[in-house]
Design brief:
Blueprint lengths: L3 H18 L7 E6 L2 E6 L2 E6 L6 E2 L6 E7 L5 E8 L2 E8 L6 E2 L18 E5 L5 E6 L10 E6 L11 E2 L1 H8 L6
Antiparallel strand pairs: 1-2, 2-3, 3-4, 5-6, 6-7, 7-8, 9-10, 10-11, 11-12
Length: 180
């Protein structure tokens, strides 16, 4: 018995049904998983959900755009790039939600073509969970040469350029040359 016609009918039926099944779902971007939780950007805000599915919980509801969220190594905090007031900056928030804390204060480069990404874009955490790794253009001489930086959670009380861990410290911490 040839099952190909039945398989074809099943696939066509599934495809015709798919738009109604997924009609309420929009683009979910920048996911990161830690343990049994996932954080992602939806409609410009950060949301978390179980990796098993279920209802998502909104973490942020600010007037700007939040993106590039990354869990800390112990899954207790989430670092992200937030655009409040026109500049992309690095923020951190408890994984359960709350008021985001701004960690960087250097002026961002401004709107760029999408292929370049975002200024002060969060890439992750240092293994000890004390600093956040991000990419930025603040010392770049060319738009095609951004640099990696780290910002410490403990020195973020000083809104100056010196609150950034310099590239040399980042290179030592990560054990790789970042700028040369």
């Amino acid at each position: 018995m040839d099952l190909r016609p039945m398989r074809f009918a099943f696939v066509v039926g599934a495809l015709l049904e798919a738009p109604s099944v997924f009609a309420g779902t929009k683009l979910l971007r920048f996911p990161d998983v830690c343990g049994d939780r996932v954080v992602f950007t939806y409609a410009g805000d950060l949301w978390t959900a179980s990796t098993q599915g279920g209802t998502a919980t909104r973490l942020t509801a600010g007037p700007g755009l939040e993106q590039s969220a990354r869990f800390s190594p112990d899954c207790s905090r989430i670092a992200f790039t937030g655009e409040y007031g026109g500049d992309d900056q690095v923020y951190v928030v408890a994984a359960t939600g709350g008021e985001p804390k701004q960690l960087t204060f250097y002026p961002a480069m401004g709107p760029m073509p999408q292929r370049w990404g975002f200024d002060n874009q969060v890439y992750g955490w240092t293994p000890d969970g004390k600093s956040i790794l991000f990419r930025g253009w603040r010392d770049s001489t060319s738009i095609s040469q951004p640099h990696l930086y780290t910002v410490s959670l403990t020195c973020a009380n000083y809104p100056t350029v010196t609150n950034y861990c310099c590239r040399i410290r980042a290179e030592r911490r990560l054990g790789i040359p970042i700028h040369g």
